[in-house]
Amino acid sequence: MPQAAKEGKKAPITVTRDVAPPRKAPPAEAPAFATASQAASACRSSTFSELASTLVRCGGVQATRIVAAGAAEDLHQFRVTMRRLRALWWTYRPLLDRRQYARHRALFKGLGDVAGQVRNYDVLSSLLACVAHDAPLSENIARERALALAHAKTTMARREVMRDLANTSAQAVQSLRPLPKCAQSEDAFVSLRIAVARKNMKRKAKSAGHAPGRSRLEQLHELRKRGKTVRYLLELFEHGNAADKRHLKQLGRLQESLGKLNDVVASEALLRSRPGLLGGRMDAAKLRKRLRSLRKRHLRAAMALIRA
């Protein structure tokens, strides 16, 4: 036993410049992870929760505005928010409960479609003003739009619908599974999913280029949706390097072209399903001919961008 201990005295402690002082113990409230997988899972849950809760909260605010006023811009922004939520859920689909994933995505799509019904009449009115500027618009279109808006307001005013929307983020976070072995971090996982989305888009672009007749329009519609998924993922996860910025710019041009084509196709379909919309105040045959000509022009422009 050392002499200092025998005499009941503490031995002096000497700290040299080369020896680092002992680390402080972490605070009691700091989370401790038994494994790297648990740490990655917590990180993933935190990021997903932040994105999901922000978008869900934004959608709730937009729905409240729609119920109060029903402005066209609020309807548009609400649809964008629902599409962003679908893109986010698609990203984490391998980690989410299958049934819950399907239920949430169906809710997002259903709410977006309700708002989209109103926009369909706005698009139709705009197109008719361009191709049939020599004829007054039918009052039937305004009446049908008012009915669609009333339906949207009624849907978004239902407490159970908005409650279901508000609960989606927390439910999804609770069901998240750990990262797969092929992804060592959340960034790696997200990058893998973005790569899958890009691959899906390229595959659809190739098939659209070889599709015949009416089938090509359907393929281009799917291409537009897949392009939106890529765009939303790059925006959500802030992939802002030079290559991604160039891709977003190219994607924006293609999306704009496909959007114009889709507006014409959707308006043609709306007129076919509801021929009474014109109300006898327009030459239906002449109008359809002009819309068909416009569709072909937008189709050529879209295909030129795809093949470039």
From TrEMBL:
Which superkingdom is the protein from? Bacteria
Q: What Gene3D superfamilies does the database record attribute to this sequence?
A: CHAD domain (1.40.20.10)
Q: Where is this region: Disordered?
A: 1-28
Basic and acidic residues: bias regions: 1-10
Q: Which Pfam families match?
A: CHAD (PF05235)
The family database entries (InterPro entries) matched by this protein are listed as: CHAD_dom, CHAD_dom_sf
Q: Which PROSITE patterns match?
A: CHAD
Tell me where in this chain the CHAD domain is found. Answer: 33-308
Q: Which PANTHER family match?
A: CHAD DOMAIN-CONTAINING PROTEIN (PTHR39339:SF1), SLR1444 PROTEIN (PTHR39339)
Q: What is this protein called?
A: CHAD domain-containing protein
Species: Pandoraea morbifera
